[in-house]
């Protein structure tokens, strides 16, 4: 595993994802309560940044067509999206968030 610093924890709001570029990947870092998650920052239905959508109920919304993705699994929870997005391991170290983009938690290969 190769964790890289993605952002400061206080940059991640509870109602909106934070877009971060790590190497060749665009990811979205999001919060649900005290938990922090990292997902591929592109809707699997349309090439739209998930970081532009709202975060609620442990899901991030694609603002264009309304698909919701579970922050834990990357799976869509409603249509029109049917394919999951990649999810990445994270570590909170003090006040910083680190993400490992070399590994996916759900086996989905990021685009």
UniProtKB/TrEMBL annotation:
It holds the Pfam family Rieske. It comes from the Bacteria. Residues 4-99 form the Rieske domain. InterPro entries: Rieske_2Fe-2S (IPR017941), Rieske_2Fe-2S_sf (IPR036922). Keywords: 2Fe-2S, Iron, Iron-sulfur, Metal-binding. The keyword Magnesium does not apply. SUPFAM superfamilies: ISP domain. This is Non-heme iron oxygenase ferredoxin subunit. It comes from Nocardioides cavernae.
């Amino acid at each position: 595993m190769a964790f890289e610093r993605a952002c400061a924890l206080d940059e991640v709001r509870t109602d909106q994802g934070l877009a971060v570029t790590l190497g060749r990947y665009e990811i979205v870092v999001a919060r649900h309560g005290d938990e922090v998650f990292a997902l591929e920052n592109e809707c699997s239905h349309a090439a739209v940044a998930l970081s532009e959508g709202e975060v609620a109920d442990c899901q991030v919304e694609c603002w264009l067509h309304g698909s919701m993705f579970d922050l834990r699994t990357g799976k869509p929870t409603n249509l029109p999206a049917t394919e999951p997005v990649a999810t990445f391991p994270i570590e909170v170290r003090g006040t910083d968030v680190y993400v490992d983009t070399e590994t996916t938690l759900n086996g989905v290969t990021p685009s």
